[in-house]
Write a structure and sequence with these properties.
Protein name: MIP18 family-like domain-containing protein
Distance between the termini: 17 Å
Number of domains: 1
Shape: elongated
Organism: Candidatus Marsarchaeota G1 archaeon OSP_C
Oligomer: single chain
Number of helices: 1
Radius of gyration: 11 Å
Structural class: alpha+beta
Strand content: 5-15%
Length: about 40
């Protein structure tokens, strides 16, 4: 899975209290992808 695909999936994850996605809220600082894992910060 590519970095951009992971970011697109994360755009569908919403903070339930305010209804904004976690990417737009700048809660995802970094996405690293290698052959076996994805690391989110």
């Amino acid at each position: 899975m590519s970095k951009s695909a992971i970011i697109e999936i994360l755009k569908r994850v919403y903070d339930p209290e305010i209804g904004e996605n976690i990417v737009d809220l700048d809660m995802v600082k970094e996405v690293k992808v290698d052959e076996k894992t994805a690391l989110l910060r």
